[in-house]
Amino acid sequence: MRTPIIAGNWKMHKTLAESVDFVRELAPRLEPFAGVERIVCPTFIALAATADALRGTPVKVGAQTVSHEEKGAFTSQIAPGMLVGLVEYVIVGHSECRQYLGDSDELVNKKALAALNAGLKPIIAVGESLEKRQAGAALPFVEGQVRAALANISAEQMAQVVVAYEPIWAIGTGLNASVDDAVEVIAHIRATVRELYGEAVADGLRIQYGGSVKPDNMVAYMSAPDIDGALVGGASLKVDDFTKLVELAAQAKGV
């Protein structure tokens, strides 16, 4: 069975002090749910302090993005090697980075490879716009993102990869894809990976759903066998909500 994985993407929320206070309260609340992998992704300025506060706890840390370059004259960027020892995971290809920061499919692939080569585990986000969904093009569009993101990633490296399906129109809008819609796309993602890498890799790949995930809809998503977790935005900013999401994931998956 694939280990459920719940990651909280804090985006541009919480100061350094707020981040530390938050995880000090959160970590003991999450201890009972050892069958679920639990991750928080604070802002870069809070990564070191958050990682230090969580050392020795079951909660892992992720970064919200990473550069594909090892070093150099790239003002404002963070190299993979700078994250080693601080985080285990890094989100690449989030729709907000694609939309506002110009992350192309090619760049997402370079970032994923750079993360893997540094020993980090990429959470590769994919998802269609409302226009693509309404045009009936969601499946081929997301498939194209997946194929591009995984270019030159080996079957062995795929064991370290997580994919997050986040329909753009459901992020921060209060809207969410129906369970059937989410399952359809996630099944197609797994089928694409099966075609690329074979049955064993596809069966082992963990695929999250993201997009206005809340405690009141968590069970519906996590009860679907093909959905292995959630990449959570707003609901990860409150200790009670994030704890409840992890608890519900554990119950739904029986871990």
Explain this structure.
The protein has 255 residues and is of the alpha/beta class. It has one domain (5-253): TIM Barrel. It is built from 11 helices and 8 strands. The protein has helices spanning 16-30, 44-54, 80-83, 95-100, 105-117, 130-134, 138-149, 179-197, 199-204, 215-222, 239-253, and strands at 5-9, 37-41, 59-63, 89-92, 121-126, 162-165, 206-209, 229-232. β7 (206-209), α10 (215-222) and β8 form a beta-alpha-beta unit. α1 (16-30) packs parallel to α11 and α10 packs parallel to α11 (239-253). The longest helix has 19 residues, at 179-197.
Structural class: alpha/beta
- What summary fits the major beta sheet? 8 strands, parallel, barrel
Rg (CA only): 17 Å
Give the end-to-end Cα distance, rounded to a whole number of Å. 10 Å
Structure described in brief:
The protein contains eleven helices and eight strands. The protein has 255 residues and is α/β, with parallel strands linked by helices. The protein has one domain (5-253): TIM Barrel (Alpha-Beta Barrel), CATH 3.20.20.
